[in-house]
Amino acid sequence: MLYQEPLADVADALRSGRIDPEAHVDELEERAAEVDPEIESLVAEDGRWERLRADAAALAERYPDPADRPALYGVPVGVKDIFHVDGFQTRAGSDLPPEAITGDEAAAVTALRRAGALVLGKTVTTEFAHMSPGPTRNPHDTDRTPGGSSSGSAAAVAAGLCPVAFGTQTIGSVIRPAAFCGIVGYKPSFGRISTEGVIPLSESVDHVGIFTQDTAGVSLAAPLLCDSWRTLPAPTETPTIGVPAGPYLEQASDLALDAFEDHLDELDAAEYDIVRVDAMADIDAINERHQRLVAADAAVAHEEWYREYGERYAEETSELIAEGLEATMETVAVGRRSRGELRGDLTDLMDEHGIDLWIAPAAPGPAPEGIDSTGDPIMNLPWTHAGLPTVTVPASETDDGLPLGVQFAGRFDADEDVIRWSHGIADAFSAD
């Protein structure tokens, strides 16, 4: 079911004319008919393929000269169904009336459309990017979750339905599903990619992110999305990698930790300097402050809708909002202050020990069985709380063939460094 279709390769072939955009839509239609009934990554859409063929034809007419074609000319992009897109309803995995929650197109979607991308369609999300999973299954094993809340986007990229897709992360909803599905996920520094036009869960910590099949795809897409992107030369030296030893790391399963030690050995063999540093001794308090902040923000974001349509919300989302309605101003202030404090603490440790990147398991283990739960985001939480740029790459597989990923995080607003270093790290894990 898995299908290798890296973004940079597809984009180059479409721009150069080696692939015709309309013919590519025909191929995607065949691919979707083959695999999506099993994984259910796409939100149903009447006339999807006719629309895409018309969009592709209009694009070809607009850019007849390959030299004038934009970076993502004809590239299909999956869009998590909490992003507003002109011409599409927004359902957000919920039972609320679409007309009540649909708004102006998300700035990130507009940015990729301006770069020539075609919207493949909406991808399945948990309700309002919280819980209550949809029907999407992991392409590696359809009896397992693809992760959440960006389940449809991760599964669609892993299954070759599109080479790039949007997700969001409020705790772990880009990094974790990327790891479960064996692909690359990128969560930027907080605020580097606009969340305008995306239904919020927690405005204090929501991040827009992307999925691709390799790190080269992130390098192509990120400059189109990130504010004030800086073009940097390829690195000439390997970064020093810090391992955050202590109770944070111990949240992962024994299986994940054993594999993680193997991953560190591979990086050591590739001549990366590995530094183990005690960090985040107060991880339980960090976790609690983050969860309380998300609940408080969710109550504010959904107050009007919940007042009118509360009975249509899933139980898990209702519980989150109810918790947030009990929150005080102090809860919000403490949570927001905690974000800056954690970012400062991690940066101080990087300065003290000469660390360029932090590394950790991208999830507590492989994708769990069943699709009633999306898995635990606990390994992603502190990097989201601190708002640090984070990338996950596939690192190995279990004996059952399930992907295991590592995540690495850099300094705030140093997304360019994190991404340019990601290529070598990915190569170290893919080397025979």
From TrEMBL:
Ranges for region Disordered: 129-152
Every Amidase domain range: 26-418
Transmembrane segments: none
InterPro entries, per database record: Amidase, Amidase_dom, AS_sf
Highest rank taxon of the organism: Archaea
Record protein name field: Amidase
